[in-house]
């Protein structure tokens, strides 16, 4: 069954269509706004053995055919995602992830594909709203729905989902993810503004998003799937009661060790001691069955102890008071043959920064759906695993 419903948003119809495309997916919704269309799909599967986190993947893909373009370069096929696409993936992920229940660990993938682009209406908020609608119409448990809107301001007047040409005149560009009674995420920028002006923009977004939330609920009433029953696994009460008396005092002492490596070493030793004590008390088999939940409870006790330290004694994790800062040191010309280099250090955190100057020939051509541009300033950030004393893939 094909269901197609619309609602007016910012003076234009926002349309959701389900049942025509990607029929093998858990849910698949074609979002349309103007002539910009985004297909958002959701699939999920059983948990992978051994994982203890929620493996949610959000992908956003801009197909050049959507704007009637052929990819540039020697190979006439889309390559890896551009930085702008990756940032849109994060816009989808951030407001959606926290709404899943704690302990839900099924492999989940949301894919938003730009199928048509009219060079006027941006696709990122369509991807966000479509992702929310997909999850809400699916059988997955979650605390949605949410809706995404973009707020602009021209001449003091707020507008919803401004076009590219309107954004050129706007002094504000803010993406807001809204639920019925809360703001879930805010991202954007603009000229300097007062707190009241920003709050007015958020209130405007919240009010404007309500018809979209109504539309998602109406779609669910027609084609929504029954939600699966889910209850997060809980640690047995008798085991849980043993952990706090066993670790809290030592956790408090470990949390106040100034040096990070020593502090983490103390945590590891305490966790090992807890494991040995609990194994002796409840048996190896029962400990093995509850090992992940016991580890999670240990982390929760660590969080609780640190929170009580901060709120009760007004001190941070390494013993510093709220108004104490770590020593700051800088050093220039650290590397011999770079155009510029500097070492910045605060406490145990270091940043090695280098600068390279180029010519106009070194500008990067940016080929996006809405047109080409040239980039002449690059900021590349690297965080290799040795920064935290760990072994990971580069």
Overall shape: it is: globular
Uncertain runs are: none
Structural class: alpha+beta
Tell me the quaternary state. single chain
- Helicity, as a percent range: 25-40%
CATH superfamily of the largest domain: GHMP Kinase, N-terminal domain
Strand content: 25-35%
The CATH architecture term of the largest domain is 2-Layer Sandwich
Mean pLDDT: 93
The total count of strands amounts to: 15
The CATH class of the largest domain, by name, is Alpha Beta
Name its key features.
single chain; alpha+beta; Ribosomal Protein S5, domain 2; four-stranded antiparallel sheet; 26% strand
Write the layout of secondary structure elements.
Layout: E1 3-9, E2 12-18, E3 27-33, E4 36-44, E5 56-62, H1 83-96, E6 108-116, H2 124-137, E7 147-154, E8 157-160, H3 164-169, E9 172-178, E10 183-190, H4 195-223, H5 237-255, H6 260-282, H7 284-289, H8 291-313, E11 328-332, E12 340-346, E13 349-355, E14 364-368, E15 371-375
Parallel strand pairs: 5-6
Antiparallel strand pairs: 1-2, 2-3, 3-4, 4-6, 7-8, 7-9, 9-10, 11-12, 12-13, 14-15
Can you describe what's shown?
With 394 residues, this protein is of the alpha+beta class. It is built from 8 helices and 15 strands. Strands 1-2-3-4-6-5 form a 6-stranded mixed β-sheet. It has a 4-stranded antiparallel β-sheet with strand order 8-7-9-10. The chain has a 3-stranded antiparallel β-sheet with strand order 11-12-13, with no helix packed on it. Helix 2 packs across helix 4 and helix 5 runs antiparallel to helix 6. The longest helix has 29 residues. The chain is globular, with a radius of gyration of 25 Å. The relative contact order is 0.10.
């Amino acid at each position: 069954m094909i269901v197609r419903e619309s609602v007016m948003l910012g003076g234009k119809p926002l349309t959701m269509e389900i049942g025509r495309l990607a029929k093998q997916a858990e849910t698949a919704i074609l979002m349309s706004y103007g002539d910009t269309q985004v297909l958002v799909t959701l699939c999920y599967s059983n948990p992978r053995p051994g994982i203890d986190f929620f493996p949610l993947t959000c992908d956003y893909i801009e197909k050049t055919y959507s704007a009637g373009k052929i990819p540039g370069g020697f190979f006439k096929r889309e390559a890896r995602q551009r930085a702008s696409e990756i940032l849109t993936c994060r816009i989808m992920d951030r407001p959606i992830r926290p709404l899943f229940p704690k302990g839900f660990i099924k492999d989940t993938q949301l894919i938003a594909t730009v199928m048509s682009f009219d060079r006027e209406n941006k696709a990122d908020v369509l991807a966000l709203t479509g992702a929310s609608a997909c999850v809400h119409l699916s059988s997955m448990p979650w605390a949605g729905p949410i809706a995404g809107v973009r707020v602009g301001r021209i001449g003091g007047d707020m507008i919803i989902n401004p076009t590219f040409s309107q954004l050129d005149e706007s002094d504000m560009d803010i993406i807001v993810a809204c639920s019925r009674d809360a703001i879930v995420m805010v991202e954007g920028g603009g000229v300097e503004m007062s707190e009241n002006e920003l709050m007015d923009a958020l209130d405007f977004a919240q009010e404007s998003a309500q018809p979209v939330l109504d539309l998602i609920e109406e779609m669910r009433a027609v084609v929504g799937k029954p939600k699966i029953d889910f209850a997060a696994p809980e640690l047995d009460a008798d085991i849980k009661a043993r952990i706090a008396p066993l670790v809290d005092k030592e956790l408090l002492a470990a949390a106040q060790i100034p040096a990070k490596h020593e502090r983490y070493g103390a945590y590891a030793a305490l966790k090992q001691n807890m494991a040995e004590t609990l194994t002796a008390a409840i048996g190896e088999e029962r400990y093995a069955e509850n090992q992940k939940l016991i580890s999670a409870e240990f982390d929760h006790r660590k969080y609780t102890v640190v929170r009580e330290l901060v709120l009760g004694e007004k001190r941070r994790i390494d013993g510093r008071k709220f108004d104490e800062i770590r020593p700051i040191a800088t050093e220039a010309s650290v590397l011999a043959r770079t155009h510029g280099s500097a070492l910045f250090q605060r406490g145990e955190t270091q940043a090695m920064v280098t600068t390279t100057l180029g010519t106009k020939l070194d500008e990067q051509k940016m080929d996006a759906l809405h047109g080409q541009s040239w980039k002449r300033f690059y900021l590349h950030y690297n965080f290799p695993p040795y920064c935290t004393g760990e072994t990971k893939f580069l």
